[in-house]
Amino acid sequence: PCVCVWLCVCVFTRNFPTSLFYRRVCVCVCVCVCVHRRIDHRLKRKDSTKTLLIKSEQLLRIQEHDFALRPGFGGAAIPVGIDVQVESIDSISEVNMDFTMTLYLRHYWKDERLAFPSHNNQSRTFDSRLVRKIWVPDVFFAHSKRSFIHDTTTENIMLRVHPDGNILYSVRVTVTALCSMDFSSFPLDTQNCSLELESYAYSENDLMLYWKNGNDSLRTDEIVLSQFFIDNFQASSGLAFYSSTGWYNRLFINFILRRHIFFFMLQTYFPTMLMVVLSWVSFWIDSSSITTVLTMSTIITGVSSSMPQVSYVKAVDVYLWTSFLFVFLSVIEYAAVNYCTTLEEMKRMKRGKIPVSTYSTSQAMAFDGCFHDDEMELTSFSRMLTPDHHTREMRPVGGTRLRRHRSVRENVKLLVRRSYMIDSYSRLVFPLSYLLFNAIYWSLYS
């Protein structure tokens, strides 16, 4: 700058040769010097952050140590405390038998190599750039399928170093882990799941994992799930053995999931109950139960498609297939009554015929509980109502005296002759049996 100012003064005070050539040279020199100084100033400002990082590395003496080795290498195992704050349980999949959890994972340990002098004893906080240059615990999630560290808007990693070398290393991570589920009582089931933490490379002789504050090391935000209640979160610890590498410390995040039953009551149980009750209509009127059978099959298929293909019977399978059996028996009962009625009427038609106009359709239904077309010949009812009929076994029902001891064959013949009795018994037996089944089922599984 001094040369530039001197040249300008010389030019404008005419103490310098007044040739046009020299004046142009003087101006060019001044411009070049000024531009160089401005560029140099900008470069220094751009490198200021790098200079600060270099100062931090110098403060922590990173270049003086080999951070590929753990603290206290060759001595006792380094203790690493862990605490976890569960932010959310994002999803639970019965089909894949896994769950997805987002959490804050914090590590605590001491590395005297990173100790630094401080007059006010204040800690220094860094981001992921410094984490890559020092030693950190290699904690991983056992039995995990997928996991990642959040990186919006920057990597969610925090490193805090205290003057005495104590370190806090925190990451925000989402992990999808295996949960072995037992669906024997589904959907009235309770599932026990756990997330397991362990060092990948360091056995218990080199690294000791522990919960920093005991049971208080595990904290949770308010978590609400659509299909489950979370009954309990609990921290525990243990050891894992690998035949080729030895024993490793392992920490467990245990939680219990209890399923909401109301959703399945609306989607499965109530429709199934209605289908079973609807099948009983055939005990009073002539209506086929084929539609209810098809509906039950649809419900069973829908429930099975949303569940894993397990090789044991679930509670919902017991209920659905038992209800299907009730509907199926209703169809069989309907077919049996119609077959017996038709068979008996054919036998009576061979014995004699009476014009149908003698009796109305409603009167015919009063005797056997079945609907008859007006064109059908009701010979059986004429004999029951004719006072001078000589066949003893065709007397009206009110005057019939049942024997005390009948063989099975005679009872079957009696039911064939009086098929309306099957409907009468079914109206009582089927509802009572289904109520008994529901009482046993809900007391056993709930």
From TrEMBL:
Catalytically driven reaction(s): chloride(in) = chloride(out)
Domain Neurotransmitter-gated ion-channel ligand-binding: 62-260
The keyword Membrane belongs to this UniProt entry's keyword annotation: yes
Transmembrane segments: 21-39, 261-285, 318-341, 425-444
Cellular localisation: Postsynaptic cell membrane
Main location: membrane
GO-annotated cellular components: chloride channel complex; postsynaptic membrane
Membrane topology: Multi-pass membrane protein
GO molecular function, one term: transmembrane signaling receptor activity
Location of the Neurotransmitter-gated ion-channel transmembrane domain: 268-350
Keyword annotations from UniProtKB, A to Z: Cell membrane, Chloride, Chloride channel, Disulfide bond, Glycoprotein, Ion channel, Ion transport, Membrane, Postsynaptic cell membrane, Signal, Synapse, Transmembrane, Transmembrane helix, Transport
Protein family per UniProt: Belongs to the ligand-gated ion channel (TC 1.A.9) family.
Descriptive protein name: GABA(C) receptor
